[in-house]
Amino acid sequence: MAMKTPAQAATKWKAGTAAGAPLYATNASAAAQLQVANAVAGADNWLTGINAAGKNAFVNGLNASGSKGTYAKKINSVGGQRYSQGTAAASDTFTTQIGKVLQVEAAVPLSPKGPKGSAANTQRSTEMQQALHAARVAGQFQ
């Protein structure tokens, strides 16, 4: 059987698609609103499918790596070296960022300290958490 070359197939395809362009434009434009409405109506189904697929992929990936001992192998083969290199490389950034955090902490007016496990200490913790959260949201640190 004689086969077309890729160039011949492309030429035929281009000719056919050019002739169908007006019909495509008319029909696609007419269906645009319906397509949007159908997609919006199916949003919950889409999200359910994405969540299920994402969760399955995540769990399967964890199970696969765990059964092969990948996590432990990587720690033993490169983790120690890279940990030291990473902390050294991040030292300047850490110093800058922790300085901003400590500055916020120093400015927080905390209520008086109470006995271990007391409501007063829980309140102090809440005061600090709220101050740190407000500072982070305001962009004072990352």
Describe the structure.
There is one protein chain. This protein is mainly α and 142 residues long. It has two domains: 68 residues, no CATH class; 52 residues, no CATH class. It is 82% helix and 0% strand. It is built from five helices and no strands. The longest helix has 36 residues. The chain starts with 5 loop residues before the first helix and ends in a 5-residue tail after the last helix. The model has no long low-confidence stretch (mean pLDDT 89).
Major sheet details: none
Outline, from the CA principal axes?
A: elongated
Number of domains: 2
Strand content: under 5%
Which class do the helix and strand fractions yield?
mainly alpha
The poorly predicted ranges are none
Oligomer: single chain
Helix content: over 70%
Our measurement of the CA-to-CA distance between the termini, rounded to an integer number of angstroms, reads 67 Å
Mean pLDDT: 89
Task: List how many beta strands DSSP finds.
Answer: 0
H/I helix tally = 5
State the order of secondary-structure elements, H for helix, E for strand.
HHHHH
Q: Radius of gyration in whole Å, from Cα?
A: 30 Å
